[in-house]
Amino acid sequence: MQEHSVHVQCSECPIRHRAVCARCETDELSRLEQIKYYRSFQAGQTIIWSGDRMEFVGSVVTGIATLTQTMEDGRRQMVGLLLPSDFVGRPGRPVAAFDVTATTDLVMCCFRKKPFEDMMSATPHIAQRLLEMTLDELDAAREWMLLLGRKTAREKIASLISIIARREASLHMRRAKGMLSVDLPLTREEMADYLGLTLETVSRQISALKKDGVINLEGNRHVQIPDIDRLLEEAGDDSDGGMLV
Amino acid sequence: MQEHSVHVQCSECPIRHRAVCARCETDELSRLEQIKYYRSFQAGQTIIWSGDRMEFVGSVVTGIATLTQTMEDGRRQMVGLLLPSDFVGRPGRPVAAFDVTATTDLVMCCFRKKPFEDMMSATPHIAQRLLEMTLDELDAAREWMLLLGRKTAREKIASLISIIARREASLHMRRAKGMLSVDLPLTREEMADYLGLTLETVSRQISALKKDGVINLEGNRHVQIPDIDRLLEEAGDDSDGGMLV
DNA sequence: GACGCTCCTTGACCCAGATCAAGTTACAGG
DNA sequence: CCTGTAACTTGATCTGGGTCAAGGAGCGTC
After folding, report:
1. A210: which nucleotide lies closest, measuring CA to C1'?
2. Could you report the per-residue pLDDT of B39-98, keeping only the tens digit for each?
3. Where on the phi/psi map is residue B132: left (φ > 0), alpha (ψ -120 to 50), or beta?
4. Is A111's Cβ below 8 Å from some Cβ in B?
5. For domain B8-146, which CATH number applies: 1.20.1250.10, 3.40.50.40, 2.60.120.10, 3.40.640.10?
6. Residues B107, B39 contacting (CB under 8 angstroms)
7. ipTM metric
C-alpha cells in the first residue's frame, strides 16, 4: 500500500483525481465508473449546509470549494480549502459537519454514498486509502492550528501564499522568467476567514509584503514570488518541511 | 460497521480502550493480545519528538498526553490532547509529525507498528475503525480552528472547561451535590498553549469566570460547574451540539 | 461613458490581550 | 517547622490587529 500511484483517471474528468487506490485496478474502477456522476455548482453556491443530510461523497474536479463554520453572531472561520483532486465527504457519517461552499464555478465527481460505502466494505484498499488521506488532512489541520494560534498577521499571509504556491506548483509547474507566480483563488475576505483575521488586516499585510519586496502584485489576485525562500522565512516555518495542506 | 461497541478490553488494562473494532472478535483479539505491550512514562517526559521515527502505535490507558508544535523562536501550540482511550500513531507513516509529551504519569498500551499494520491489512474492520476515529479527530481539530481563529479569551476558557467536563463525564459520571465538577489536567501554561493565549490571560479569565459565578474554584485545578448551560453559553457554542474532541 | 456593482486599499482611532513585573500560594524535602 | 521552587495571581503598561470610515479600481450593463 505504499508507493504505487493513488490517482484514478475518470473516463470524463479532465484530470486524474484521487479517490481510490489505483492498485485495486480495473474491476474496482469499472464498478466506480458505474456509480459515479457529475455535479456542477456556480461560484458562491453552497453545496452542503452544516447539519444537512449528505447522501454523496466525491472529489473536486475543477474549481475551488471551502469548508467553513459560522457562529450565531456571524463570526466565520474557514476550516478547509478544497482544490482539484481533494476529497469531500465522510464515509460512515450521515450529516455534514461544516458548510461546503463553491467559491468559484465548480465541478465535482460524485458517488452516491450507499454504493460507495458498499464498495468500501468490499474493497479494503479503499478504506486504507481514505485513512491515509484523512491523516494528511488531520496533519494539515494541525499545522493550521499553529498558524491560527501563534502566528502574526504577516506570517499568516506569507504562510497562505506559500501554501497556495506549493499546491499550484504540484499541479502545473508554472514559472515566468524564473519567478514563481500564483493566482490567489480567494477574495481578501475569504483569506481573512481562513487566517482568523479581518479583511482590512489582510489587505494591509499584503501591501506591506509588497512594499518590502517579498512579493509582487499584478492586479489584485496575481502574485509573483521573486524569492520563495524569503517568503518561507516570512511565514515562520521551520526549515522548508511541514505545511502540507 | 455501525452500532456495535468499538471498545476492546485488554487483559491487563484497567479500562476498556478503543483501538480495534470489537466485532472482529476473539480471533483478532487474541492476535492483538500477542503483540501488545505496555509502556510507562513520567510526567513531563517526551514520548516522541516531531520527526522521529515512530515504531509503535497505541492508546492511552491512564494519564494525559499532549500533541504540540513549536516554532524556532519558542512559540508553542498544542494541537491535541490525549485522554485515556485516545489512539496515538499513524499507520502507514514512518515519522511522527508532532511532539508527544506526557503531562502526567502515563501508561500506554502499545503495538509494534509492523505487526499492527500487517493485522490491519488482514482485518479490514481495523482500517475502517481507524478511519472513523481519524474523522472524529479531524472534526475536533476543525472545531478547534474556530476557537483559535475567532473566539475571545473568555470564550476559549469556557470552551476548554466544557470540553474537559464532557470528556470526563463520558468516562466517570461525577457529580457532587448536583454540581458537575472537573479536575483540570493541565497547568495554566499548558492551557495557554492549547488556546493560543498567554498564561496570564488564562489566569485572568479563569478569575473573571469565577467572579461572575460561571464556575467555582476549589484549589487551582478543581472546578465546579453550577450551571453547565451557562458555561456553554459563555463558550459561544451554537446550541449544545458540536465540540467533540 | 456613466452607472452601479463588488472588491480592495488606506487612514484614524481603539481595545483585547500581550508583555513586564511583583507578589502569593501550594507543596515537597530536609 | 522552615525553605526552596514551581505554579499561579494580579497590576501597570504597551501594541498588534480590530473597528469605523472614506475613498479607489475594476468591470459588466444599459
Report:
1. C9
2. 999 999 999 999 999 999 999 988 999 999 999 999 999 999 998 888 999 888 899 999
3. alpha
4. no
5. 2.60.120.10
6. yes
7. 0.88
